Amino acid sequence: MNTRRVLAVGRTESGKSYYLRNAICRRSPRVLHLDVMGEAHKEASPRAVQVEGLRATLDALVVAADYTRWDIWAFIREPDQLQALATRLVYKPTLAEPSLAELLGGLVLECSEVSTLAPLRGTPPDVSGLWSWGRHRGLSIAAATQHPALCDVRVRAMSEYVVLFTLTDAASLRWVRENMGEELVPVVRRLPQGRGVRVEMGTGRAVEFGRDWQLLREWKLGGTPRLSGNLRDG
Ligand SMILES: Nc1ncnc2c1ncn2[C@@H]1O[C@H](COP(=O)(O)OP(=O)(O)O)[C@@H](O)[C@H]1O
Ligand SMILES: [Mg+2]
Fold this sequence. Notes:
Blueprint: E1 5-9, H1 16-24, E2 30-35, E3 49-52, H2 54-64, E4 70-75, H3 79-90, H4 100-103, E5 107-111, H5 114-117, H6 125-132, E6 139-145, H7 153-157, E7 161-164, H8 170-179, H9 184-189, E8 196-200, E9 205-209, E10 215-220
Parallel strand pairs: 1-6, 1-7, 2-4, 2-5, 3-4, 5-6
Antiparallel strand pairs: 7-8, 8-9, 9-10
Helix pairs in contact: 3-6
The chain binds adenosine-5'-diphosphate and magnesium ion (MG).
Magnesium ion (MG) binds near residues 16, 17, 112 and 144.
């Protein structure tokens, strides 16, 4: 199964969720929206299933396993429940037993604020495993954060694409400078809502796109040591 990991970074209202839901999730027949802030539910379509808490989410996923297309919006706030969901999604207790992600035939997990799910310090291995093990189990991830400097570094390191929307706070701009390259700092400061820069982490290829996804420019980022998608800094 082909999977991919995308990390959208930008301040609140910059266009992260709009991009992830319309440019990424919409292409997939199976999407689990993980709302850790209690803010995303209102954007669910009328056909979407909305659940709250781990138990209800797992029940909904078990029902969903009989269908090829579904859209589930889960509101889960408690860290131990988020960890348990991560474990169920990608952990493989034995080689013979498939993970839930595999049983579901692959899915996209959309996460509304990744610094809550996978914080800089104390992210459980099963949660970072969504990014590392999930790739072999049919799990794609469309994650967003307005606090990139507060996220587990493995999230950035395991993401093939980082999509930058506007950022203005000092900590995030420093994160851009140190992780994405100095030249992007003035660019992200002035991006209007909905406009972004998609960086392919393996190659440093950058694409600036407009509100309707139109290509505005394309270039190769100058040398930055932290572009490759491996775990050197983890
Ligand atoms: N490319 C776009 N085209 C049209 N509307 C957009 C676009 N990007 C964002 N918006 C609108 O701007 C608002 C904020 O976007 P949102 O994606 O929710 O921000 P974030 O997730 O970064 O807080 C929403 O009302 C959304 O519909
Ligand atoms: Mg959002």
